[in-house]
Amino acid sequence: MTSHLRPLSDSTWAWLHDDRTGWGWSNCGVVASEGTALLVDTQFTLAATRNLLDAFVGALPGVRIETVVNSHQNGDHTWGNQLLPDAEIVTSSASAAHLCHEMNPAQLTALCQAAPSSAVVSYAAKHFGGFDFTGVEVMPATRTFTGREEVKVGTVLVELLDLGPGHSAGDVAVHIPDEGVLFAGDAIFSGMHMVVWSGSLDACVRSCQSILDTGAETIVPGHGPVLDRVGVTEFRDYLLRVGESADAYARAGVPLDEAARRVRDEHGQSWAHPERLYTATAGAYRDAGIQGVPEGTFALVEGMAGLAT
Question: What is the CATH number of the domain that holds 224?
């Protein structure tokens, strides 16, 4: 795995990976001005976060990270927070509340190391078993906000946007309006299908539209290559098409597992991880008012694992 800081504008950089489809390898962002910096998200492991911080120091010597904005609470965006003990860690109130729904490092390690007794254990081991979570202490936000908040990084204006539920129960975007750059976290994926943990596909579509409404021209997704407005529009429209198919199956009384297989067959060919369409279908079923739709991390991973077999 190789990773690098890519400059996007005079004051912004993206932390990107050559593995553009694997679980756990998340993008990060940096906004720097006048000797101070804001970091958007950390990494899944302490080693990966140290790699990010070493690259930061090499590219921006003497600049100090004063603020970390967590786009949401999944571990691949937050489990390196402890390596920035002097920074303020900011997220939305809804994002902070989602912390209790995330598997902790010990639980995820145990799941990956368990005997392969089920599809979900095998699936977890395949996608997360290569990560070493030794020493990770989950560090929550030190400050939360709702709605929209402006912060200054040196002379650069940064907007923190509370997108509400979408990928997770609470997503945050970081917009640098004067430079046309936006860090979307997992409200946007690039080159791979989306995971819908929040239980609402409609909410994911609304988040995409909120991002487009900012007017940003360069959008850094939570995973995958950097996008322009055309790419984000295509991603939003893909979610709309998936939602239309899933909603039709819901109203026709098709069981969720069968509907997810049909949606995968219709929409899963182009991008990585078509099994994630189980979560999108489940979100559309919940939006349609269907009762008994699985929710929670383990149940949704179980659905993805079943669809991947």
Answer: 3.60.15.10
